[in-house]
Each structure stands twice: as structure tokens, then as C-alpha cells.
Specification:
With 409 residues, this protein is an all-alpha fold. It has one domain: Amino acid/polyamine transporter I (Up-down Bundle). The protein has 16 helices and no strands. Helix 2 crosses helix 9, helix 3 runs antiparallel to helix 4 and helix 6 runs parallel beside helix 12. It is globular and about 60 Å long. It starts with a helix and ends in an 8-residue tail after the last helix.
């Protein structure tokens, strides 16, 4: 989960909301929604116990067409867009060191997926190491940021009562999309159930504990960025961590922070490059159009699905705008995630973990998420239409593909 969004979203949020209470509320609300989702996905994952995540959940609980749409979205933007965005952010953070260049992000965008083609065990070990490095680095940043006093007279803190007006404005809902995107990944463990030991016990534990931990981390990081950066410096900027710690430690200290942020983004690329192709692989087993992507190597790894996911990431990396890709990917992922949460209501008797307070938490998620998407559609129609266009293409492909489906009639 901890990746591009938490280090890049604040600058875009400050374009819409400026009150510190509003900013913190955004990250708490996003964490609360992710926690509800984690509870629901723990139930779905332990009930079906098949790798493929939402594709399996939606296909078996609602209709194969809905599962197909999710797999299509995952293949085109769900997992490829976060990889592209992480690579873009890596270049932004390395700019003070290497200047204007696409090479670092491009290299890891291509190299990391290749590393996942050899062994599931090796992929898991690499991901564990990268994640530990990432968490250690983030905790150090938070510790330093909270310990030291601001180096400027006018930090971006604003604890006035203006938050009461900001939280009912469309801009607040748009800012939530950035937050939801930053929490993307809380459900990833549910996509690889077949590769999890004792999923009935370990899947809920992984989803829930990780989401709570990350929510605390995210709130503290925003406090640190606001404490050590001015509103003028941070507004509309991608590299907010670089700015904040540059003020605190000077140019040389900022270079080290930029370098380690770029390094920890490798873990983000790795996680999405590992999990995403499993959904494409699950769809490819059922539909002839995608059947070539169902081929695996001797270690059971879907190499062709990995290559396709990497190719789409490469295209988005070269052609997409950072903010636009984040918004339209965030919109369509939020829509499909909301449908998945609804799908859990169709399971009357869960076969594993049962989400507490069912169905109330599901309906809270559905209504809240729907309101955010309506606001986003109102405020950013072009990005929203781009997301809906991706869904429309997926439905056309399904109508064509189902004639050749490998599924029983």
C-alpha cells in the first residue's frame, strides 16, 4: 500500500482544500473506507479461496460479465496505472540528483516485472525485503519530522474553522479520490489466496492489521509534510516530501530523502507487477480471447500476463499525465471496488471469515463511495468519462468474447 500516493497526493489536495483538519479527515476517512473494504475482502477471499480477487468474487456472486469488466479494468489501469505512476514519481524525486530523465523509472518499470518471472518464493522474499526497507524508511521520516521544529515561520498548518465549509465542497470529494488511490493495495492479498498459507487465518490478519497500520502512518506523514512545508511551496507539487525535508535538512539532506523515496517506490512497482497479472491469468482461463495469457512456466507463473501488464504500464508511462492517470484510474477502481463490496451482500452464508456488523458496513461503504464518485464526475467530467470509456470497451469485448467463452453455457 505505501507507495506513490502518500508521497505525492498532498500537493494536489491543497489545490482543493487548505485546512489541516480537512486534510487529516481525508486520510482518516480513506483509511476507514479501506478498513471496511479489508473486512469485506477477508470474507470474500476466505469464502471462495481462489486466486483472482475481484474477478472471482464478481463472476461467481453477481455475473461473469461483471467479473470480466473488473479483470479488464485491472489489466488496463488497475495495476498498470499504479506502476506507471510510481515510475513517474520516481523520476520526479530523482530529478534533483539526475536531472530531467526518464531512465530510472523506465528501467525499474521493465526490470522488476522480469524479476517476478522466475519463482513465487523468490518474488515473495524480494517483496518482503523491499517492504521492510520501505517501512523502516517511512518510520524514520516520521520520527525526524515530528521531533524537529519547523524551519520556517509559516508552515502549511491551518487549524481554523474553515474545514466546516471545505468538507461539503466538491473539491473535498475529489481530494478523497487521491486518498483512495493512496490506499490502493489494501486488498492485494485477496488476489493471491492460492499462494497464502492457511488463508482462513492469515488472509484476514494480513488485510486488517496492514490497513490499520498504514492509516496511522499516512496521517502522521501528512502532519510532517504540512509541518515542514509552506502552503505556497506544496500546492500543486508532486514531490511534497522532497520540499518538506529540504526545508528541514537543507539541499543535501533533501537529496538523500529523494533518493530513498525513489528506492522505496521499487516496492510499489514490485507489488503491483506481482499481483496484477494473476487477475488477467484468472480471466484468461475462462475466455478464449485471452486464452494465450493463461500460459504459465514450469513454476506456475503467468509470464505472458506479466508481459502484457508491463507493456500497458510502459504505454501509460510514456503518454499519460500524472494527475489525469491518477484521477481516471482512481474513479474506475473506486467504482469496481464498490461493486465488489456490494457482491458480499449476495453471500448469505460465508464459508470462512465473516465481516462484523454485516450488512451495515457494506452499505456505509457503498453510499459513501457513490457520493464521492458523483462529486468527482461533477468536478472532473473528462477524467470520469475516460474511466467509463474503459468500462464500455470492456463490455463490448465481453459481448464478443462470451460467444467463444470457455465457460459452460
Amino acid at each position: 500500500m505505501i507507495g506513490t500516493g502518500v508521497f505525492t497526493s498532498l500537493g494536489f489536495q491543497l489545490l482543493e482544500v487548505q485546512n489541516t483538519w480537512s486534510i487529516l479527515l481525508l486520510w482518516v476517512l480513506g483509511g476507514g473506507m479501506a478498513l471496511i473494504g479489508a473486512l469485506v475482502y477477508a470474507e470474500l477471499g476466505t469464502h471462495f479461496q481462489k486466486s483472482g480477487g475481484d474477478y472471482i468474487f464478481l463472476s461467481e456472486s453477481i455475473h461473469p460479465s461483471v467479473g470480466y469488466l473488473y479483470a479488464w479494468v485491472s489489466m488496463t489501469v488497475g495495476f498498470s496505472a499504479p506502476i506507471a505512476i510510481a515510475a513517474m514519481a520516481m523520476n520526479q524525486y530523482l530529478k534533483p540528483i539526475l536531472g530531467e530523465t526518464l531512465i530510472p523509472g523506465l528501467f525499474f518499470l521493465l526490470a522488476v516485472p522480469i524479476a517476478h518471472m522466475f519463482s513465487v518464493r523468490r518474488s515473495g522474499s524480494v517483496q518482503d525485503i523491499l517492504t521492510l526497507v520501505k517501512i523502516g524508511f517511512v518510520l524514520i521520516l516520521i520520527g525526524l519530522g515530528l521531533y524537529y521544529a519547523p524551519a520556517m515561520e509559516m508552515p502549511a498548518f491551518n487549524f481554523s474553522s474553515s474545514w466546516q465549509n471545505e468538507v461539503i465542497m466538491p473539491g473535498f470529494a475529489v481530494s478523497l479520490i487521491y486518498v483512495f488511490y493512496a490506499y490502493t493495495g489494501w486488498n492485494s492479498a485477496a488476489y493471491i489466496v492460492d499462494e497464502v498459507d492457511q488463508p482462513g487465518k492469515n488472509l484476514p490478519k494480513a488485510l486488517i492489521s496492514a490497513t490499520v497500520f498504514v492509516m496511522v502512518i499516512y496521517v502522521l506523514l501528512q502532519m510532517v509534510f504540512l509541518k515542514h512545508g509552506s502552503f505556497t511551496q506544496l500546492e500543486g507539487k508532486v514531490e511534497v516530501a522532497d520540499i518538506a525535508f529540504g526545508n528541514l535538512f537543507g539541499p543535501s539532506g533533501a537529496l538523500w530523502v529523494s533518493f530513498f523515496i525513489a528506492v522505496q517506490l521499487i516496492a510499489t512497482i514490485s507489488g503491483y507487477a506481482w499481483v496484477g497479472p494473476r487477475i488477467t491469468y484468472a480471466m484468461a482461463q475462462d475466455f478464449k480471447l485471452w486464452k494465450p495469457l493463461a500460459k504459465v512456466n514450469q513454476n506456475g507463473i503467468p509470464i505472458r500476463a506479466i508481459l502484457l501488464n508491463t507493456g500497458i504500464s510502459f504505454g501509460l508511462f510514456l503518454t499519460g499525465s500524472f494527475e489525469q492517470v491518477m484521477l481516471y484510474a482512481g474513479f474506475v477502481l473506486q467504482l469496481m471496488g464498490t461493486i465488489t463490496v456490494y457482491s458480499s451482500l449476495r453471500i448469505k452464508k460465508a464459508g470462512g471469515f465473516k465481516s462484523p456488523w454485516k450488512p451495515w458496513i457494506q452499505w456505509i461503504y457503498i453510499f459513501f463511495s457513490s457520493g464521492v464518485m458523483i462529486y468527482l464526475f461533477w468536478d472532473r467530467p473528462w477524467e470520469s468519462f475516460a474511466g467509463l470509456g474503459i468500462l464500455a470497451i470492456g463490455m463490448i469485448l465481453f459481448l464478443f468474447d462470451r460467444k467463444n467463452s470457455l465457460l459452460p453455457a
